[in-house]
Design brief:
Elements: E1 5-8, E2 11-14, H1 22-51, H2 53-57, H3 69-85, H4 87-97, H5 99-109, H6 111-120, H7 127-136, H8 139-154, H9 157-172, H10 174-188, H11 195-215, E3 218-219, H12 226-234, H13 236-267, H14 271-278, H15 280-299, H16 301-325, H17 328-363, H18 368-408, H19 412-434
Parallel strand pairs: 2-3
Antiparallel strand pairs: 1-2
């Protein structure tokens, strides 16, 4: 088999693509898929940096801006909200316009919030203006959905955990990188010069779009399929996985946005002190994500996810203790452990999505390429919905912190609620994907094939 690349209206298109064919994969598929993965990571990386931009901008906003901690939490919450909602249309844009074409467009769209922030980032700007510009950065959150949907189509099932983990992890690193850039600016030029951060990213956005145009491809077999979207939306596993993804990715993005503010508000850190610590957790959580995908490839995503949620609950218990005792070293230890675990869980949960729909295909009697095609079709549609709902978990975390600090002056009540949620996610994973209840004997002719979810 071959993967002929043709030029049609709208850019470079590969007309045939079958990554499950090992001969095709070894001869041509792997090289093409890896090249697209590389430049997908670059674009998604910049997208995450812009999405999390206001987690850095709020560190520059001293008393002269006249915005209290609750107002700052709401600013970053607005970016989270828009980034979550926009993931749904971004998911289907890949099939409508092509993965390469949409990567170019989505990268260039990042110029809008970046240039807008450069215009308004100064004392005296109204809060409503800041709120609008923070909302615009949600555009960067959509890049994740389109990128993951695109890369999911390039790789065979046996490689999806690694590929999706690497793609997402490389993108997630955009969060600590923009925070490091903010730290560098605060440490050298001072907290009065936030526009330097924005000046760094404008040329990076242009470079990402140019690289996508030169080195990425569109897959012609990936077509808009409204039926797949409806089918995925009706499948209970889409919503179960959305709940689990709230616990992993929602936690990652919510903590990434809020970490610096929590350090400033609860522990009295200065902008420079907060910035010097903020990036550590998101960096480790991003780097570990491909490991979570690889472990899921080897041991099963459900097993890794189960134990990961249990560990997240334990780490949150440490954070609650440190918050009550006002111990910054213990707080940092527990919080950074949480970041690492969210990264592992991100990788394992996303591996579960294509495996679940593959299991459903096999249970329906499909084999070979038809089963693989069914899995790609449904999992690609489900990823957009799961990614959007999961990102809303970040909004929930920011709003929980806002309410906790408004009512008690501490983040402790918020952390207690997070602990309970992680325990529920652990129980849900076990009950749906790992529990093997005893079954009464059923006559052979009445038996229906069931998906082997313990293997996802």
């Amino acid at each position: 088999m071959s993967a002929p690349t043709t030029t049609r209206e709208g850019g470079r298109w590969i007309e045939q693509w079958n990554p499950e064919d090992e001969t095709f994969w070894k001869e041509k598929g792997r090289r093409i898929a890896n090249r697209n993965l590389l430049f997908s990571v670059l674009s998604e990386h910049i997208g995450f940096s812009i999405w999390s931009l206001w987690s850095v901008m709020v560190l520059f906003m001293g008393p002269e801006y006249g915005i209290d901690p609750a107002g700052k939490f709401f600013l970053i919450g607005m970016a989270t909200l828009v980034g979550a909602v926009i993931r749904v249309p971004y998911t289907f844009a890949v099939a409508r316009f092509g993965g390469r074409n949409w990567t170019i467009v989505s990268a260039l769209l990042l110029l809008i919030p970046t240039v807008a922030a450069a215009f308004v980032m100064e004392p005296g700007t109204s809060y409503s203006t800041f709120l609008l510009v923070a909302a615009l950065t949600g555009i960067g959150g959509g890049n994740f959905a389109s990128s993951m949907t695109n890369i999911n189509s390039f790789f065979p099932l046996r490689k999806k955990g690694w590929a999706l983990g690497l793609n997402a992890g490389g993108g997630n690193i955009g969060v600590p990188v923009v925070q490091l850039v903010g730290l560098l600016v605060i440490g050298t030029a001072g907290a009065a010069h936030p526009r330097i951060v924005l000046g760094v990213y404008i040329p990076c956005i242009v470079i990402a779009a140019l690289c996508a145009a030169l080195y990425m491809d569109n897959l012609a077999p990936v077509r808009n399929d409204a039926g797949a979207a409806r089918e995925a939306a009706k499948d209970v596993h889409t919503w179960i996985m959305s709940c689990l993804y709230i616990g992993t990715f929602g936690s990652f993005i919510g903590y990434s946005f809020a970490f610096g503010l929590v350090l400033q508000t609860q522990f009295g850190r200065t902008p420079l002190q907060a910035a010097s610590l903020t990036f550590i957790g998101p960096l480790l959580g991003s780097l570990i994500r491909p490991v979570g995908g690889s472990l899921a490839d080897r041991y099963g995503g459900a097993r890794i996810t189960l134990w990961n949620f249990a560990a997240m609950a334990a780490a949150t218990g440490v954070v609650v203790y440190a918050s009550v005792q006002k111990s910054l070293p213990v707080f940092l230890t527990g919080f950074i452990a949480l970041f690492v675990l969210t990264g592992l869980g991100n990788g394992s949960t996303y591996k579960m999505i294509p495996a679940i729909f593959q299991a459903k295909a096999l249970a329906q009697g499909m084999t070979g390429e038809p089963a693989a095609a069914y899995g790609r079709r449904l999992s690609g549609a489900a990823m957009g919905l799961i990614g959007a709902v999961g990102a809303l978990g970040g909004l929930g975390i920011n709003l929980a912190f806002r309410q906790a600090f408004l009512t008690t002056g501490s983040g402790t009540p918020a952390f207690v609620s997070f602990l309970v949620f992680y325990a529920l996610c652990s129980a849900l994973t076990w009950a749906v994907y790992l529990r093997t209840p005893a079954r009464r004997p059923v006559p052979t002719e009445e038996r229906q094939p069931q998906p082997a979810y313990a293997e996802v």
